[in-house]
Amino acid sequence: MANVFRVGEIEITVVSDGEAKLKGTEYFPASTPETWAPHKALLDDEGYLTFPFTCFVIRSGERTVLIDTGLGPLKSGTYRGGDLMGELASAGVRPDDIDTVFITHLHADHCGSAALRDDDKQIQITFPNATYRWTSAEQAYWSGELPPQQIARRDIFAAVAPRWNAADGGASLAPGVDVYSIPGHTPGHAGVVVSSGTGRAFILGDGVSCPVQLTETDWSGAGDVDPALARAGQEAAAREAEGSGALFAAAHFPGLTFGRVLRGNGKRYWSPV
Ligand SMILES: [Zn+2]
What is the extent of the structural domain holding 184? Predict the structure, then answer.
């Protein structure tokens, strides 16, 4: 089910491509069952986090921008994707309505539906009218020699390459929709900031993996390429959002919703709206 939010004149529809279940203490190696105790509302009975593959449709004036495309139709271990196209249809969004696809980073759970295989197993661009955008640092990283743990979707890159147009920090994707550089999870990782009137919303991809990191500021996600850089970016974004009333979300936050960054008892935390 899609959730719809408004930021001034801009409408944001939040949908999901599926989800994965990840053990809290494994995803955050610095954590223990004891240090998870104050945050156990985020875990199921067996200590697993649910990570949805959240995608955001932003309508600004005549423009329609899709942020991230989820895992795509893949089932592997606890990873289950492939819901995006049905979710978009339910929300009244047709593939040819999308004029821009912005991918926060090129991990397989963010670019998985950017191109899909048809009935003859031929890979086809999913959003026929869209320009596909991510940062030039991200493009350089995935075009080069990768560490072995990175799974590259070369088939998807090849399919969308003719439509790729660099969008680096500060670039405008549509009126009031700007690229927000937050590297560290991957070298060219970037989110988006939506601004209209007095409203503001942060959409941070995997810049922050889980709301718990706003409180437990030394918990780095297992997937971060440069944990110190990722932590610095999280701190900067959280400081900017804290107490400002800005909406704040990331790709794997629970509940397909935005929240606000607040402070209580000397600790920062994320409160879903
Ligand atoms: Zn991810």
Answer: 3-272
